[in-house]
Every structure is written in C-alpha cells, then in structure tokens.
Write a structure and sequence with these properties.
This protein is mainly α. It contains eleven helices and no strands.
Length: about 300
Amino acid sequence: MKSKTADRIATGVFIAIAIIIISILVGLFSFILVNGLKHVSFDFLTTPSSNVRAGGGIRDQLFNSFYVLFITMLIAIPLGLGGAIYMAEYAKPGKVTDIIRSCIEVLASLPSIVIGMFGLLMFVNITGWGYSILGGALALTIINLPSIVRVGEDAIRSVPRDLKEASLALGITKWHTIKTVILPTAFPSILTGVILAAGRVFGEAAALLFTAGLSTPRLDYTNWNPFSDQSPLNIFRPAETLAVHIWSVNTQGLVPDVEEISSGSAAVLVISVLLFNLLARWIGSMIHKKITATK
C-alpha cells in the first residue's frame, strides 16, 4: 500500500471517529433538551419541589448544586494544585514518590459509590454532622482530587524548561518562579482540569446520596446567617442536588408529573453545565491574559 493511500485512509478513519463522537454528543443533547425545555418555566426554576403534589419546581436543588460545587472547588483546588506542584517540582524520584503516585491512581479508580460509603462513615457518622453540604463537598473532593493533581502535574511539567532556568538564573527563588512563571504559563491546562472536575460535581449523585442527603429543609433566601438552620448558606444542612433530585424523582417520586419534572431537571442540569463551562473558560481567559500580560 502506498504511503499516500495509507495517509488518506488514516485521515478518513479519524474524521469518521470525530463525526461519530460529535453525532453522539449532539444527539444526546438534542434528546435531553427537546424533551426537557418544554417543561422548563420561570415558576419551575423559582418554586420549591414537592413530594406529593404536581407542579413542583427545582429552586432549592438548583441552588444546592451550585453551592456544593462552590464549596467543593474551594477545598479541592488548593489541595489539588498544591499536590500537583509538589509532584512536579519538589518530589524526588524514589519509593515514596512512587507510593504517592500509586495512591493517586488507586484513588482515581475508586467507584463513587465506595467513596460515598466512606463519606457516610467519616463525614456523617463519626463527625456527627449528619447529612450536610460539607460532608458532600468533602466526598466530592476525594473524587476530584486525583484528576486535578494529575492534570496539574502534567500542565506544570509541560512548561518549557528554558523559562524556569531563565528565571532561576536571574536569582529569583524557586517558589517565586513557580508562582510568577510556571503557574501562569500552565494556567490554561490547569483550568481545563478544574472544569472537568467541576462538571463531575454537577453530575455526581451516588456519593451525595450518602453524604448530602435526599432532602432539603425549608430555606429562607433572605436569611444570610450561615449558622441558621433555614439559611441557604448553612454548610451543615442537608442538600439535595439536581442530579440526586432526578434520581429520586424517577425512583421514589409519588408526584403525578414525574416525567415532566425529571425531563425538565435534566435539561436544566445540561444547560447549567454548559453555561458553567463557557463562563469558566471566559473568566480563565481573562485571568490568563492579565497574569501573562498578553492581549
């Protein structure tokens, strides 16, 4: 077979694979949005859910999803980025580093239901918090930590060595070099890893079933005292997220409009993930331009 023919065949195969992937994604999104958007309204987004009557909304579940995401990222990003910096810049080759890397790989391969059971034991029973936003956020941090560490480490290692050596040659300390040269250069790849981790937070249900719970107390959105039981900012209250709500409605729902609620919730969840990704990339682009002084 001639090289040109082989090249054309390979190109055609890769284009076909790309078309298949895009078609699956478009078909899945189209199915969810077409079946769900017709059930989405302003009242659906701003009214609380109901376990018995028809016409319930997803106000609290939607807020809980974003709040759990915020708390999770607040914990996971510093830990993950710190681990990535250590593995890429400070860890010396040896048995200890190999053990740490093996632990990260094992942690990344654990099923979310297992981490949920661990969270039930540690963050619900032993701590005495009960079902809480904090317990769910800690469980999700365990799930997302390996991916953030691995993506961050690869991003830091991909920074040209010449940049690091030039900075050190000027007498700048290693930490200042990492802070002002390496991290800004690796920022776009790190941001991609964070967005992927955030997307998993939106769609995670198994771990949150055992840590954040299947219910939400009556919330007063004018009460911003984080220590109040009715405050939406209280991190020690149960919080049913949108993904958990979809599972709960389809498996345990007693309301007559189960299909409408689950379809509308799925559409809102997909749109939320899409908007979050676009917004995060836009903000990340602005931050990258600012810290690197690029136009």
